[in-house]
Amino acid sequence: MVPSFDLLLQGCRLPDGRLVDLGTLDGKIKEIGSLTGRPSHRAVDCGGLVLTPGLVDAHIHLDKAFLSERAPSVEGTVAEALRVTAEAKRRFTVDDIRARARRALDQAVRAGTTAMRSHVEIDPIVGLKGLEALTELKREYARAIDLQLCAFAQEGILQSPGTEALLEQALANGADLIGGCPYNDTDAHAQIDIVFRLAREFDVDVDFHIDFFDEPEHMDVLYVAEQAVRLGWQGRVAVGHASELAGLSHEAFHRAAATLKDAGVGVIILPATDLYLMGRKDARHIRRGLAPAKRLLAAGVTVAVATNNILNAFTPMGTGDLALMGYLMTAAAHMGTDGDVADILAMLTAHPARILRLPDYGLHVGARADLVLWETERPAEVVTTMAPRRLVVKAGRLSIEHERSCKDLWRTGA
Ligand SMILES: [Zn+2]
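Output (structure tokens, whole complex):
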């Protein structure tokens, strides 16, 4: 008999609570339902454990992960992080970037991340070394993770002569999209204009680091939204941080959120970095510095939660496990109800998939079979306990299998 499925996951609990079997064929979800007895190349008894789509990390910096020993955070400010990381970057080599990025990618893949957008710094300091290292890793890891590379002007464009030409080279040599950082330049709007010009020239999506301050003194995101609409780039633009949104009055926030929704601009909250670097001038009642996730979601904005940095001066903690960021959000964004926790899971899965414009993403028949099996029978615990991962499936193949053992030696006195 011809097997119906390449892989049959029996008895898994979907995030909506249904207990089902799921069969994959040719990399896609072929059927969901009661599939007992159906032939398959490989069958796994999931024992009622929770199955979600693969995690999608919409914003990470693989090229500057694991720099804390060389460039530690002392003051804990954005200015210091930019300064000491730029200094460390002078000594980057392709091998060094590749080794640190591999460590982050391995952590992410083992934790169930099946798609990721990494920013890659492009500037006269590091040139195209980051792109060279990460383009190679994009191919090496293709069976485990879809990696998008964003050519990113961390040091500015106008204030860093030569960067614009390097960005063009990066886009001509494999970068998937372009990213700017208007808060670190001499003229934010002029930088935004340059980034959109390159986006149109190369027909790529856009991703800005933006409005990364406690008070809403810049709100460059509104100019980004205006340009997205003017140029027909709706649904192709994302912004990271946008912490200034948290400081707006009620009315101004509603206007801004409606503008972002109408312009199809996705917001990516980076809770580890935002919590660490914002509110630094507050002596008491220290602000959290997070764009308001609940209010943005209520306004219909696409909102992702992402890792950003791992062990560097921007974020001196963390791992590549995206579930950490969900766990942080329950406390930092006051999102602890069942509905809130489901929203957090969506900000680690469906919302970032929309920002990355992943085709056929999700837990439905016909979707790409990128899946994670978690060691819990309660969907909320994916977020509230960072449940361990059991299996990861990428395009219908088992890509990661975790085996755990622990001996309570104290009980036996051994
Ligand atoms: Zn970032």
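Residues 180 and 208 are 5 Å apart (CA to CA).
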